[in-house]
Amino acid sequence: MAQRMKKTEVSTATPSTEKKQPTANEMREWYEKNKKHIENFAAAESAVKSLRDVTKTATKTVTAFNKSSLRTYLQNIGSNEKNLRNLSRYLFYRCHAYYRLIMYNATMFDLRCRTVIPQYDLIKVPDVQKTLKSYQETLVMLDEMNLQFEFLKMLAIAFREDVAYGCAYYTEGEGLFILPLDSDYMKIDGVYPTGNFSAAMDMTYFRSRQYELEAWGEPFQSLYRAYESSNVKYQTIPPEYCVVLKSRPEDWETIVPIFSGLLNSIINLIDLEDIQAIADEQEIYKMIWLEMETLTGADSPDEWKVDPSIMIEYFNRMISEALPDYISAAIVPGKLDQISFDSSKVNDTNKISKATETLFNSSGGAQILNSSTISGTTAFTAAIKADTELAISMMLPQIQGWTNMFIGHYLSNPCQVIYHEVSAYTKDDFKKSLYQDFQFGLPLKLTLNTFNGFSERQTLAMNFLEIDCLGLNEKFIPPQSANTQSGTSDTGGAPTKDSDELTDDGEASRDKRDTSK
Fold this sequence. Notes:
By secondary structure, the chain is α+β, with helices and mostly antiparallel strands. It has helices at 24-33, 35-38, 67-75, 81-94, 96-106, 128-145, 147-161, 210-216, 220-230, 263-284, 308-322, 349-362, 377-410, 427-439, 445-450, 456-469, 472-475, 499-516, and strands at residues 3-4, 10-11, 114-117, 163-171, 175-180, 186-191, 197-202, 234-236, 242-246, 286-291, 327-332, 337-340, 416-419.
């Protein structure tokens, strides 16, 4: 059970005797069909990612945020959790630089780099068959779950909004699907001994969403019945379903986007881009006008050289047939002329580039996102390691704790799963250190190959295929080392030398040194 960190009005529903739970594939297919309705990022006051019946229509609106709103939100974070979350959502889709920053951190994780460790007792005699059975079941389940893919969307949400909530649907043979849940109706209500969080959901969410309640099945139907009978709206999601990731795990009560300190810079960047868009239009904009000239020495101001009706006829033909969209025209009492804008006065490209560079550098490094500023291998490597540690150290332990607890709900004797703190940028160096340890006899063969993208089962299967089935170890022999080998081995390498030759060479060398004196 989760350890309660705060007294909240939360209740856990009693499981129904007749559970109706969709399979992982059914939920995955349903989610893909309704994905656009799930991720409905509307105005700040009503941006709810609600699932809707695809047969119903929905209108989406987007409200622009400004720096004044941001200052108001940051002055009282506790009461503006929803506003800050929706602002971060809006900027995630509005600003490509912010999107890249979020995904840069979310894609740091490589859950394939792991070690699976069977249970082991130093006192009791190990049961080989029992150990193999446990290892087999754990590896099969891990391969089916495909955690690298399923957790990517959760990680992106967590870096964007601070907390990501989900419901796990697992079906043996089909795998795992994690359904994202609306953060506006979720609360963290505890933490498990494994380090991952417990969450409760506001069941009033389903009052007007009976379609979702029917589609989602268990555990929501049981939780909703518990809410109706007890009138306790926040119901704790059972641990075998609950998935929670928090990017700021040190403070579970405060929910604020992890990059909230950069939101002002992101709004500045958007403002500059909007200004640049206007400037780009001005660069090609022209206005021409047709002057209606009067007769020389005319006594009246309306004595025209050309009949106005004829002039207007040709003018209309000009603007309808000859002028492109970015040129406007007018008739004035004078000669035909034009006006354009000097591009050198309105070009703010350098300002945008500088603002983007400042954004990435202010995020804690992220030099790789602004490749034009990369200089120096040592500094770049150090920045990448710092970014990796910042991104991974916070949520990888939560994923590890959840993985082991989740597997424990389905297997009676599971192995322990340990994830390594490496990213796509640092795993090669870590793999080299594993290889060095492996050369000293440490049991790291299976772990080492997970860094090459192969699971433990795949490594064992390939080894069985190559050695036991195909005999490739006898057909493909690696080249022998050119170093001197001892003994009478004739398996290759440089010729060996006997002790006399070594002694003579040694004496000759000493004689040469004596002569030189």
